[in-house]
């Protein structure tokens, strides 16, 4: 009996490679750039900050490098601009001679409830979190095709793209779109291997400031908090593991990638199952029952909007005033008679 073993793909190494990192001046971007230089890569540091801190960080990395040539360059880029995205790729190739890895790490938060969010912040969040990575990957893929090279693109997204939440409608939708783009780009391999990373919660100032606006019961526990080093190690894994093409790695604290991802998928399956159950009930009991439920729900929503329901604090439940209760009962009875 002959046993056949599947050969594991060779590990991709960043030593000697050229890596472009957007959001390079963020906590994760800085640690990732430092680690890439330590591992022997040349790095294009991309960010929108123009106060000189980008050049200082690049000079700091260059002075600490073991090689004689400068391993980093800072490129100020507005990721909302298609022209700037193209120029950052061209400048990287012009400086280092090639481009092997693209890390889309930049992000723009929009954490207010949709009705209270600023219109410009909505546009910026979609542009930076979704449109910019897609356009950058497109420009990168065209370069690889023209140069006859293979490359890797890593999209750093967020768990909000898998688990929608109140107050992150725009941010979550943009990340969900990027996760879908990553999985749909599986067919670009082997010339361009696209994968994504979705951290749950990082101990960065941007995330922590957003957590301060949550209620105490909604704040995340320390067990789910990720350090920048943990995220950097996961990004490196995405770069180095050829088997991750088209996949999204989800990390939450010390949880394993697969278990966290399965939990997110399980939630989606449960939502689909509930939807199917509603359809079955509608098919079995007829459309009249479904219509009656919808009308009663509409009446309840109207009552809420007109403030007929009085919310009582502490442990008590919501109650109706006497007048509103009488109106509610008569309206419900009329709907029931009409449906019959």
How are the SSEs placed, and which strands pair?
Blueprint: E1 18-22, H1 27-38, E2 42-47, H2 53-64, E3 72-76, H3 82-96, E4 101-104, H4 119-147, E5 151-156, H5 169-184, E6 192-199, H6 205-211, H7 228-240, E7 248-251, H8 257-285, H9 287-305, E8 309-310, E9 319-320, H10 322-339
Parallel strand pairs: 1-2, 1-4, 2-3, 4-5, 5-6, 6-7
Antiparallel strand pairs: 8-9
Helix pairs in contact: 1-7, 3-4, 4-5, 8-9, 9-10
Q: Please identify the oligomeric state.
A: single chain
First-last Cα distance: 71 Å
Helix proportion range: 40-55%
Radius of gyration, rounded? 25 Å
Rough shape? elongated
Number of helices: 10
Q: Bin the strand percentage.
A: 5-15%
* Total of domains: 2
Identify the CATH homologous superfamily of the largest domain.
NAD(P)-binding Rossmann-like Domain
In the sheet with the most strands, the strands line up as 3-2-1-4-5-6-7
Q: How many beta-strand segments? A: 9
CATH architecture of the largest domain: 3-Layer(aba) Sandwich
Query: Low-confidence segments, ≥5 residues, pLDDT <50?
Result: 1-6, 205-221, 255-260, 303-321
Using the coordinates above, name the CATH class of the largest domain: Alpha Beta
What's the SSE pattern? EHEHEHEHEHEHHEHHEEH
- Class by alpha and beta content: alpha/beta
The biggest sheet, with number of strands, parallel, antiparallel or mixed sense and barrel status, is:
7 strands, parallel
Mean pLDDT: 77
CATH topology name of the largest domain, in short, is Rossmann fold
């Amino acid at each position: 009996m002959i046993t056949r073993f599947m050969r594991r793909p060779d590990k991709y190494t960043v030593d000697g490679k050229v890596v472009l990192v957007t959001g390079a001046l963020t906590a994760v971007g800085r640690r990732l750039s430092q680690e890439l230089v330590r591992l022997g890569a040349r790095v294009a540091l991309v960010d929108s900050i123009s106060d000189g801190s980008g050049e200082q960080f690049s000079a700091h990395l260059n002075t600490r490098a073991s090689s004689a040539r400068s391993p980093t360059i800072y490129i100020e880029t507005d990721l909302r601009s298609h022209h700037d995205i193209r120029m950052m790729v061209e400048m990287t190739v012009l400086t280092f001679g090639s481009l092997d890895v693209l890390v889309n790490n930049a992000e723009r938060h929009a954490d207010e409830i949709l009705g209270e969010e600023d219109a410009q912040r909505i546009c910026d969040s979609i542009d930076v979190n979704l449109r910019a990575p897609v356009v950058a990957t497109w420009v990168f893929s065209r370069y690889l095709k023209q140069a006859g090279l293979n490359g890797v693109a890593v999209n750093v997204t967020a768990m909000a793209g898998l688990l929608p939440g109140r107050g992150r409608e725009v941010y979550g939708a943009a990340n969900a779109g990027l996760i879908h783009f990553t999985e749909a780009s599986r067919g670009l391999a082997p010339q361009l291997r696209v994968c994504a990373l979705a951290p749950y919660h990082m101990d960065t100032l941007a995330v922590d400031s957003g957590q301060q606006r949550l209620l105490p019961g909604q704040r995340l526990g320390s067990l789910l908090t990720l350090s920048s080093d943990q995220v950097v190690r996961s990004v490196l894994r995405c770069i180095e593991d050829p088997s991750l093409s088209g996949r999204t790695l989800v990390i939450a604290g010390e949880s394993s990638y697969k278990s966290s991802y399965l939990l997110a998928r399980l939630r989606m399956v449960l939502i689909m199952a509930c939807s199917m159950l509603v359809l079955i009930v509608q098919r079995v009991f007829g459309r009249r029952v479904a219509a009656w439920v919808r009308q009663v729900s509409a009446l309840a929503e109207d009552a809420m909007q007109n403030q007929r329901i009085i919310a009582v604090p502490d442990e008590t439940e919501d109650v109706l005033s006497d007048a509103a209760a009488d109106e509610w009962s008569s309206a419900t009875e009329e709907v029931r008679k009409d449906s019959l």
